[in-house]
Amino acid sequence: MDQIAQLQDDIQKLKKMVDAIFEKVYVDSLYLNHSSTHRDSESCSAADVYADKDKAIEMINRLYTKLGEADMLDLTTVPAKDIADEQVQELKEKITKLQNERISLHRRTEACSLDHFVFFRMRVGQMLRNGRLLRRAIAMRSMSSLPSHEVVGLPALSPTMEMGTISAWLKKEGDKINAGDVICQVETDKAVVDFEAQDDSYLAKILKPAGSADIKVGEPIFVTVDDQDSVAQLVNFTFDASATSTPATAPSTPVEQAPATPVAPAHVATPVAAATSTISDRIVASPLAKKIARESGVQLAGVSGSGPLGRIIRADVEEALTRVQSQPAAAQAVEPVAAAQGLAPAPIVHGDFTDFPLSAKAQAFAAQLTQQKLDVPHYHLTIDVTLDKLLSARDLLNKTRGENDQLSVNDFILRAAALTMKKVPAANSAWMGTFVRQFHNCNISMMMSVEGGVVAPVLREINLKGLDGVNADVRALVEKVQNENSDLSDNDFEGGTFTISNVGMYDVKSLAAIVSPNQACSLGLGVISKRVVPNDDPEATQIYKYATQMTATLACDHRVIDGATGAQWLSSFKELVEDPLRMIL
């Protein structure tokens, strides 16, 4: 029995070896078949590798069957180990064949540009992974003379992510990394996401410091090793365009180093005139420092950081706040205005103009809007909606509700939009190229203004909730967006089937929005105001009256819903808003 247990354990280890070798050989094989520099060279085909894998798995299954049969018999007459030896030996030969094939592949790739090969490996590795594994970094184990190490590339942390920015490193070089630890924070095109470790290792080298922007998916960002003793040997590791690793030992030809630039003392405000010289493209600060600065009106552009790599930390902001509070009142009055004008990344002042660099998120959003406007055949429908009955119903319901539980006009609007989707389900759809997808639930993307732009977090399954549920969801989502330390993730911005934008707070009458990706329509709302309208009451002495109205504009994708369907949706929405009792029937 002990022999069988030992064999079963060995087989599991062998199976893992086969899987690992298979993936590496398969990726290399794809590269060789893809590379134009090796069209005439011999390379194994993906089908051959698949066949080898299948044979190995088949051998393992047969071996398990024989072990099971041996377990049922008398071991004195049927020695289980002898039965399995032949199969295990065959499996080992198969693994040896795969290993030799991998060595051959590596030899044939020496003529290729190494950096080209590395990035190809990363791209293929990303394609081979699905679901949560897409969030894993794509790494390549180096075969150089340096200690065994992994060069880890920037992973795709969202389906639309092409580039990212390193917001902060939570681990430093030499630190132990355990599976599940957050190594760094990456700003994607949608949010700031934690990059979690999948395996235990040591952080040997950071290739992209905090604040590094426009890093392409797959581009190396750090290096890990399996043991702490190897960290020191990678202290001078580099990964440049030629993809050569700089050895830890000193080079044979000494290179004269330029004198280091003196570091500016901490807690010194940067004068405005200095903006004409070189300024960082991004203000690097901790989330807590940003929160304190935002709440107190301190301009981060005028604060020098004392944290790692010049990062602004809490103490820096508190020191700047102390200086501001000690200034005369006249000087303090200017500070909030400057803070309101401050943007991140910091503006760069030239002679006759000022450049405002865009974050990776802003660039991705702009590109997406441009493409959406070009690809989608838009049309817009506008209608005026009377809110007098809705306002009366809101005031009546709020009399019995707590101060922190008051209903808003927005709650009624969201509820009316979701119910209208039930009446006109064709509007709750999306163009998918060769078919139209109609969604069963209404998930509303609610446009919200935040510092530096707008975001559109999603309220889910609004069609299944009453006014109380809508109100609770809105409050929770607003609090989550406004709280910089919240766990807001990409999932909070994905899956919307309809978008509502409200510009009424800016006293704007109407908004003709752009239809969001994977949606069929978007509703733009204007300011609520008193307007003169015809008096329909036959007993009234005045032919005109005042009414509280709002202009609603529906932007539609003509490929999904035609003009009649869009008009039907807007008419049904108007009926519900003007007679809110319909919402509870």
UniProtKB/TrEMBL annotation:
InterPro entries: 2-oxoacid_DH_actylTfrase (IPR001078), Biotin_lipoyl (IPR000089), CAT-like_dom_sf (IPR023213), E2/Pdx1 (IPR045257), E3-bd_dom_sf (IPR036625), PSBD (IPR004167), Single_hybrid_motif (IPR011053). One of its GO terms (biological process) is pyruvate decarboxylation to acetyl-CoA. Residues 284-321 form the Peripheral subunit-binding (PSBD) domain. Keywords: Acyltransferase, Coiled coil, Lipoyl, Transferase. Its EC number is 2.3.1.-. GO terms for cellular component: pyruvate dehydrogenase complex. This is Dihydrolipoamide acetyltransferase component of pyruvate dehydrogenase complex. Residues 149-225 form the Lipoyl-binding domain. Pfam families: 2-oxoacid_dh, Biotin_lipoyl, E3_binding. Belongs to the 2-oxoacid dehydrogenase family. PANTHER family: DIHYDROLIPOAMIDE ACETYL/SUCCINYL-TRANSFERASE-RELATED (PTHR23151), DIHYDROLIPOYLLYSINE-RESIDUE ACETYLTRANSFERASE COMPONENT OF PYRUVATE DEHYDROGENASE COMPLEX, MITOCHONDRIAL-RELATED (PTHR23151:SF90). The keyword Repeat does not apply. Its cofactor is (R)-lipoate. GO terms for molecular function: dihydrolipoyllysine-residue acetyltransferase activity. Residues 81-108 form a coiled coil.
